[in-house]
Amino acid sequence: MSRILSAIGRRIGRRAVIPEMLTSNVRGLSLLSEDILRSDVEKWKNDRVVFAWQGEDHRPITKALEIKEGSTIFSIASAGYNPSMLLLENPTKVVMVDNNPTQIAWCMLYFSAIKNLTYEEFRSLVGFGEGATTTPDERGRIYDSLRGSLPSKALVYWDFHRDNMSKSGMYLFGNYIRLWGLGRFVPIAHSQETLDKFLSFADIDKQRSFYEEQWDSWRWRRAFQEALASEHFPAVFRPFMDLLAQKWLNRFLEICINIPNVDNPQIEIHLTNKISGKYGLPDFWRRENFAPIRERLDRFELIHIDVNEYFERTSENFDGFVLSNVGDVYSKGEHDQYVTRAIKRGKPGSRITYLSIAGTNKGWPDAEKDNIRVEQELSESLIQGKERGIFWDDLHIATLK
Prior knowledge:
Pfam families: DUF3419 (PF11899). The protein is α/β, with parallel strands linked by helices and about 400 residues long.
């Protein structure tokens, strides 16, 4: 499995991170500040966003943090979904950090849309629910209405990609869903009628029976395997696909026999490459959460910097950490350094969380075992039969002593 980790690290590192030491401010700046993006946009304007959709489930992460009013929380920025849901817990501040300039530019447009658009316009720009039927011309018009709110480098980036984003919507613009591509292979196994019925279950007992009796056929397992073996899936995974495919197929089974599909939009997006809104929406796109998130956008601080450099340079102390699965691309030693740097910036009693892709668990730094309490029981209670993401082995939780 260490071969998987090192290979994944090399591949993702090339795709997702600009390999330069940034000289960004370590203090937070407003979401649309001209000074956030520090690298030359001409070096990265051709790149697509990697994570315009993320496979993480914010619910167990948010519960694990036990955010109290007045808290200061650290989060990897990524596509901004996890941080936006943290705002609903009423923290004083959420610091978002990302080293990938395209992810920063993504967050700028995404949060500008929340700030300046109606819910219907936001839905059309992002491309979910009824907004999925928005024409490219109309989506382009909505984007144009936001151009004046974007700082210059983000504007250069999005102007360059305007036509492609207008065709797909923001969340289908990124690489993540296009590379996975399971939706292209589902018709090998099931008709549209069967797929629609499967996605519509709200009763878990009926869904479980349907899965076992109709969905989990040899054709379905073949479709799943072929999706992972396709040329669209990152080549770095292919030598290990016999192991990973079975792990991910088992996770899919576990999810589908425990969580109603109408409460898990990740199932629809994996099987259809879209969020139609017919079965359910992610919490961060629900109408009732749109206004509360908008009202608290000023609690965000967005920083373009390598996360390790940030922890080394900042004087901020945090009540909670969402470290995502950044450590998956590191060696064990690098992972331990990353987590240790976070621990050093935590207040007593603060919670640290991170995820690991199936088969890549690196645990906690041995040198910090006396400084943290590993919350294994809490982790199991939050993830077993509840975690809605396919790719994760575990949600790792620790409390600082």
